[in-house]
């Protein structure tokens, strides 16, 4: 057997195992008498929202101008005030010249609205993105302090890193929200993003320190011997090389950050996992929603690792 | 050009103080090519690294063009741009192309425009004989080519002195010649050079003066004819017996 067909048969085995696992899951759910309602899931991503237009006071329909799917109803009430309603022609309830009483329905208009799952997804995305940016900034500064000559900077950064790495993120979120949030009267979103950034910053700091220290000393000496000061040497020579080496661990850190953002549900930030829970309370489609939520997290993390892999390939040209 | 007065440099390790450079007084004139030789661990490289402030001095003075490196008020960055250095391990910037290696410091330190720096860079690459490699990354070049780029990079700053720290020691034997050729050409053009090397042929042919160091001390100095034919000191004689 040559290498290629050997590889093929192993891949076949992988496939068989995956199919067997799937079949096992299917049989297991059959046994517990659970009704799958996948058709109820899509409406929690996006739904057709109906807005009813009602008149506030008695009056008369002055005119109706129909253009395609939309109609504009001009209405004059008993105080001679004119108002306009734009409704879908299909859902128009009145005729021209008709008398209406307060609370009567002129018609409805429909629009597509984002459901809770989509909103939660968006919240998770922007919270993770903002926290990553601040995490990098905090991590970069702390990482540089960690290897600075000044003993105070060094000690402070070590204390920060050890405290953050030695306590659970959940506890940090509670402290950020209940203690710091109360003392400084800050919003829950700000407290949540701050907690995540500070948490990520400690790990990023260690990654960046390791990256900088992995660059041979000769690089710094060469830069200094050309007359660059230490900041210039850092910016132009050391950090670009360190960045390239730290990309894989940084990617891991940011993937963790996306997943860790689910802990913010504990302080009532409606990100993806909390949205999922809210949808479950109104649908009882527990299994479906959690599978969907898991899939959405997976899509986010896999896309991020693809992007990072692409950047890594771009930077590999000088190897 | 460079004056060193009773220079000492010590390292502290495991409770003992070791003097790598132990009281050296030597002067290097403008346009002079000085070759420093000596056994391993004799402090040659440390002495050279002191000359552009890569090592802090323990005591004594170094005056580069009249500026005292030991003085607290001296801006070392200003001194270093006048003193080019070539390392044993080349130390090219691997994330930059060959041309960018030459351009970067010119722009950042000398504040030259991009086009001016590139013109200067290309001219120097032509001079060291690798103009066609300007778009390559350093890792794609042979050791000899990398070292010639490193020399060009130092020259791009228009230094008044060039320091060479064992520039051929990390090279395959067949590449030593091309680097020495570039250095000989520089010497002919009147560049002030301080070279730490094990290439005795180069010392004999190019040097105006040879300094022999052992255990951090300057043991003997003189012209190459004097040093290689009739050295006075026993240690120098013993060393020459080993290497020649």
Provide an overview of this structure:
The complex is a heterodimer of chains A (319) and B (244). With 319 residues, chain A is an alpha+beta fold. Chain A contains nine helices and six strands. Chain A has helices at 3-31, 116-146, 151-166, 169-183, 188-213, 217-225, 230-260, 272-283, 286-315; strands spanning 46-54, 59-67, 70-77, 82-88, 99-100, 105-114. In chain A, the strands form two sheets. Chain A has a four-stranded antiparallel beta sheet with strand order 4-3-2-5, with no helix packed on it. In chain A, strand 2 and strand 3 (70-77) form a beta hairpin. The longest helix of chain A is centred in the middle third of the chain and has 31 residues, at 116-146. In chain A, 29% of the residues are buried. The mean pLDDT of chain A is 92. Chain B is α/β, with parallel strands linked by helices. Chain B is 37% helix and 26% strand. Chain B has helices spanning 44-51, 76-80, 98-108, 114-127, 143-155, 173-188, 200-206, 224-229, 234-243, and strands spanning 2-13, 16-28, 33-37, 59-64, 67-68, 83-86, 161-165, 192-196, 209-214, 217-222. Chain B has a six-stranded mixed beta sheet with strand order 6-7-8-3-9-10, with helices on both faces. A four-stranded antiparallel beta sheet of chain B has the order 2-1-4-5. In chain B, a hairpin with a 2-residue loop joins strand 9 and strand 10. Chain B is globular and about 55 Å long. The model of chain B has no long low-confidence stretch (mean pLDDT 92). Chain A binds chain B through residues 216, 218-219, 221-229, 232, 236-237, 240-241, 244, 315, 317-319, and chain B through 52, 54, 77-78, 80-81, 83-85, 87, 89, 91-97, 104-105, 108-110, 137-139, 150, 153-154, 157.
